[in-house]
Write a structure and sequence with these properties.
mainly alpha, 7 helices, flat
């Protein structure tokens, strides 16, 4: 929860700064640099919400939970980026991030984001827990049987079929438009398969 709040606050701040004209798309890397910096500084917000929710669930090991909040998601993302960057170094690509910059990001994460998450978690854990909007009844009641289309399998099928057919429709629309305009069109699904699925839509 804390990392999600942190990402949401970072995205909102980046959008606001872009709308205000402080982050220009002409300056290369300004949006990514601002996003990474804001993500580190918004660690206090992520720690606060994570600590308050942890208190609501009656957790006791708040230091361990704060450490996991500050390291789990950023550690996964940064290790993935480091591995990909290492592969770029190995290939001799000019798009690889210098090693000194990666070390600076790691130091910034450990020295700034980690303490801010702990500070936010500490204050969030000391606040009153969230109150549930409903109370759980201690007397069990029978759960009525569900209709066939409310079960897990049919619900998943019905939810997925609309997005699948809309993607097929869009692919077929672009394919036929490009064929009509004599453009070259490449699709992941072979052309006869798309035409067959499009024929089924009629």
């Amino acid at each position: 929860i804390g990392s999600g709040v942190q990402i949401g606050a970072t995205a909102l701040a980046c959008i606001v700064l872009s709308v205000m004209g402080m982050l220009s798309p002409a300056s290369r890397g300004s949006l990514i640099g601002a996003g990474v910096s804001l993500f580190f500084f918004f660690g206090v917000i992520g720690g606060y919400y994570s600590g308050r929710l942890y208190r609501t669930f009656k957790g006791m090991a708040w230091k361990r939970a704060a450490f996991l909040t500050s390291t789990l998601y950023p550690g996964l993302i940064s290790s993935t980026c480091f591995v990909l960057n290492f592969l770029l170094w190995h290939a001799g690509s000019s798009g690889a991030v210098p090693f000194s910059y990666m070390c600076a990001l790691l130091a910034f994460w450990v020295c700034v984001s980690l303490p801010l998450v702990f500070i936010g978690f500490f204050f969030g854990f000391r606040k009153q827990p969230y109150e549930y909007s409903v109370r759980t009844n201690k007397i069990p009641r029978p759960i009525p049987s569900q209709l066939w289309y409310m079960r897990t399998g049919p619900s998943m099928l019905l939810a997925g079929i609309f997005t699948f057919w809309s993607c097929i429709y869009r692919a077929l629309l672009h394919l036929l438009r490009d064929m009509g305009e004599s453009n070259i069109h490449t699709v992941l699904i072979p052309v006869p398969g798309v035409c067959y699925l499009g024929d089924m839509l009629r």
